[in-house]
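Posting for a labmate who doesn't have an account.
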Amino acid sequence: MNGTSQMLVYLIAIPLFSATVLLLGSRALDKVGHIIGTLASTAAFVVGLLEFFAMLGRAPENRAVTQPLFTWIEVGNFNVGATLLLDQLSICFVLLITGVGTLIHIYSIAYMSHDKDRRRFFAFLNLFIAAMLLLVLGDSYLSLYVGWEGVGLASYLLIGFWNQKPAYATAAKKAFVANRVGDVGLSLAVMIAFVQFGSVSFSGVAEGVEAGKASSLALNCLGAALLLAAVGKSAQFPLQAWLGDAMAGPTPVSALIHAATMVTAGVYLISRSHFVFDVASVAQLLVVIVGAITLLFGAIIGMAKDDIKKALAASTMSQIGYMILATGLGPVGYAFAMMHLLTHGFFKAGMFLGAGSVMHGMNDEVDMRKYGALRKYMPVTFITFGLGYLAIIGVPPFAGFYSKDKIIEIALDAGGAKGIILGSITLLGAAITAFYMSRVMLMTFFGSKRWEADAHPHESPALMTIPMVILAIGSISAGFIFNLGDRFINFLNPVFHSDHSGHGEKEHLLPPIVVSALALTAVAIGVSIAIAKYGRGKSIPAVAPADVSVWTKVARRDLLQDDLNEALFMRPGQELTKALAIVDEKVIDGAVRGVGSLTLDVASGVRRTQTGFVRSYALWVIVGAVGILATIAVMSL
């Protein structure tokens, strides 16, 4: 095992070992558990940086590194090895997971300082980091599946960390169940890949696709199964309803799992499976449709939320919708989806941490109607959150401007009516994003004081504000750095076997400068409407008004997604379960009990013949003998 290979093992082993020690160690670790957990995440980030710089030192076509660990499954000709793969795509996720993860660990030291179970919290964070790294470093769908389930478990544990509150435990269960529905898709995908190609490794499936070993139907089924998995994990339509409830977990969890890492795993899965979607046109179209619907659904829901974390969660659904949409637009879309994923990791994680800072200074209050004028009391939080806000709505030169505009551009370039429809949807999403994020800013940091008498807003400690400042710097600079000379998409070209070097010179439906102008116009419209409704001099009631339009009521209820799931799946499922229970009790158990009763009745009758008296047995011998003689006599006639 060479040095690079050892480093790949350390990436996963360090946080996994730390999680094990923190979970199984003695209570003596309570005082230092947070330090151990943070050092483990930091060490993994350092290893990731070393791997990244080593990768840059190699020729683009030789940057991928694989490390076989052991033979996992060996049945006949089917062999699955536990192998790690580090290439240009996975290193992006490694740096995002460990880099943002380390900042969130540092933030959590202060945020969770008064929690008696802080060591357990950091153990779960480390477990999540290790599982997420396995997800993106595995070289097969089966290895990815193990990490996929690992992050699902860690997410469940972290969302329900304060499970002494029934609502929080329910939210964790809801997230777990919704993700299991998506996991059925990944299970089916693994099975389809094995049946069609005899392999579940990424390279084996890619070679099988290229060799034409699978029919178009099989490839589209494989793509649809992978999409179902992505829909569940990335909270996309129609499985997005769990994400808002998942905000019940501690705010650092929202920043790490539900903004920067786990919910983007679906984008990774589709991008990693590009060789399937590039030739499965129906599955690729489904990806586009899901992304388009979700980016609008999330944005509309975000307009109606007064809970600051749920508003940001709705925004996350919408922004991942942009990424999913981009992955469905062919080879050029994967790199732009990844660019937006990374820039989103900076500004959304920063805003979630900013929301946690506001809650920290406001007695854990999450209702924005009870905020107002907080910029005067939390200047660092206001500035860092504000920079993330400018990035997400797409104001130049902030990060979101570069990445989201690229997605709008390729949506318009999809061609014909499809391009016009998708371009219009992405522009409408930009306008709505500008509105609801401006609403969050205005209701939280501007206007008059609306907080309760026992609230004493104040700035958070340095351990919380420093990570926010670093993420804000990323919100400012990441987009420009990634877009400079198309360096980021050129970096990813070998993974997707494409060449985007001339993308900027290719013919577009509209020139990029016009696309940017349209996007900025949409942003200006959204901001203007928000200022007109929530700006200076506007009274914001402390309680959400009940006399609102039916559209607002529907948006407050997450566009009736829970009601729909209940009507289509939960209630019919309950009725089916009741019917099956009746069949089980009356038919199956009835048959079993009937056979048992018959056996007992026969045994009881037979038992009466066993009296224990010799004279009775002699009588039966005589009766038998007479019966035999009578039978012989009858037969001889």
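Reply:
Got it, the structure tokens are right above this. The chain has 24 helices and two strands.
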